[in-house]
Each structure stands twice: as C-alpha cells, then as structure tokens.
Amino acid sequence: MNVLVFADPTAASLHIVDEVSKIVRERPEVVLGLATGGTPTDVYRELVRRQQAGDIDLSGVTTFNLDEYVGLSPEHPQSFASFMRHHLFDHVGLSVDRTHLPPGRCDDFSAAARDYEADIARHGGIDWQLLGIGDNGHIAFNEPGSPAGSRTRIVQLTAETIEANSRFFDDPRDVPRRAITMGIGTILEAKRIRLLAFGAQKAAAVAAAIQGPVGDDCPASFLRRHPDVTFVLDRAAAGRLQREVGANPES
Ligand code: PGA
C-alpha cells in the first residue's frame, strides 16, 4: 500500500482531483466509487470547478456511492443522495441514470442489496474507489466487527458514528440508527482504492489501519490485502504513523 502525506487538506484533495481528471480524460466512461462526509467536499468542489471551466468532462462517468442511511428518502436533505446532488451531480451534467446509491427506503432491503451488487458487476466493477475513514476505523459504514468478506447489507451504526455524524443534523436524535452499505468484500473488489483522511481526530484510526494488526477491530486495515491502495493524508492525520511506514511528506 502507498501512503502520501500532504501539508494540508487542500493539497491532498488536489492530488485526488488530479488523479480523477487524468483517469476521466483517458477513459470518459470510467466507473467511479464515491464517498460522502466532510472529507471529500473539497474534492467535489474542485471537480465541479474543473467541469465548469471545461477542463474535464464528467458527463460520461458512472458512479456508485458507498452507502445511505436507512429510513431517509433520496429527497431528504440529510440523505447521501441529496449530499451527492448538492456537492457534485447537479453541477457536472451527470444524468440520474449514471449515478447509483443504495436505497434508504424500500420494501425489501435484501433484494435491494443484491441488486446493488449486481448493478456494480453489470458495469464491469468499480475502477476507482474513493473512501473516507471513521474515527473508529470504519470504511463506508462497515463498523468494527465487520467481516472482510461482507457484501452490501443493512448495518447498525455504532454510538460513536451516530455521534460523529450528528453534526450534519439539526437534532442529534434524528441521526438514523441503521444504514445500507457496500461491504468490505465489495470495496476490496474495486480496481484502485484511494482513502482520504484529514485531521488529528483520524490519526489513531489511520495508524491502526496502516500499522496495526489486520483484522475487524479496524475495518480499514483489510485494505492492506488490496494490491492498489493509497492513503492520501494531511500531516495531522499522519501524525501517529511510525517513520518506517515510508510516508513521503510533501510540502
Ligand atoms: P467524514 O466521515 O469524512 O465526515 O470524516 C468519514 C467516514 O466516516 O467514513
């Protein structure tokens, strides 16, 4: 696995955007795996800027998001579907049929989870997957204890995740307790994976993922089984890594 350490979140985000820009220029119909949360918003802002400046054309890509809250419709302002429309989809000429999120509301979540996996497979799999990491080491909503081979499914959120995500809700009691998420096995099938993490708050999870034991105590540690993973960090998120990891600070 590769570890890149940048001076600040802006530089780290630009690295990601440069990579996406290059990929999309080479392959306009690439399948991108996307993430929500506070971490990727600068990435999306810069992608929108480049699209509107005519530097890139995202209108041909297909996207699959990692997860969605159970109980929230796509129109709900705190749904991840709304987040993606607001931060990216509405501004880059992406038609709805090219964007995919697991459903937050449906009659049969088991069938929806199977359909989501089948849809990814039908598109030839995810070429490039963006990830964040939770303070507890989760990737997507695969909380500690999630098996390496897990697939898209309904999960219970931990108290820690509910607390961390309450900042996006007017009333913390409104944070859903369950989510539908790609599994770790689903994520590990992406051809390339880029994990973005900023801030001292993430430093312990990042260190556990890169230098702790590989296991379900830290779901992000399973990424070490993947042949093409890069952790893209700011200095604060890299603050607890031992030097021998070979991180190359860039200024
Ligand atoms: P954040 O969430 O980007 O809002 O910090 C990341 C995550 O929980 O995976």
Question: TL;DR of this structure?
Answer:
This protein is of the alpha/beta class. The chain has helices spanning 9-26, 41-52, 80-87, 109-122, 159-165, 184-188, 203-211; strands at 2-6, 31-34, 62-65, 67-69, 99-100, 128-131, 153-156, 178-181, 192-197, 229-234, 248-249.
CATH architecture: 3-Layer(aba) Sandwich
Query: How many domains comprise the coordinates?
Result: 1
Instruction: Categorize the overall geometry.
Output: globular
Total of helices: 7
Plain-language structure description:
The protein has 251 residues and is of the alpha/beta class. The protein has a single domain (9-192, 213-230), classed as Rossmann fold, CATH 3.40.50. It contains 7 helices and 11 strands. It has helices at 9-26, 41-52, 80-87, 109-122, 159-165, 184-188, 203-211; strands spanning 2-6, 31-34, 62-65, 67-69, 99-100, 128-131, 153-156, 178-181, 192-197, 229-234, 248-249. The strands form 2 sheets. Strands 5-3-2-6-9-10-1-11 form an 8-stranded parallel β-sheet. Strand 9 (192-197), helix 7 (203-211) and strand 10 form a beta-alpha-beta unit. Helix 1 packs across helix 2 (41-52). The longest helix is centred in the N-terminal third of the chain and has 18 residues, at 9-26. The two termini are 21 Å apart. 42% of the residues are buried. The model has no long low-confidence stretch (mean pLDDT 96). 2-phosphoglycolic acid binds next to loops.
What key phrases describe this protein's structure?
251 residues; alpha/beta; eight-stranded parallel beta sheet; three-stranded antiparallel beta sheet; 7 helices; binds 2-phosphoglycolic acid
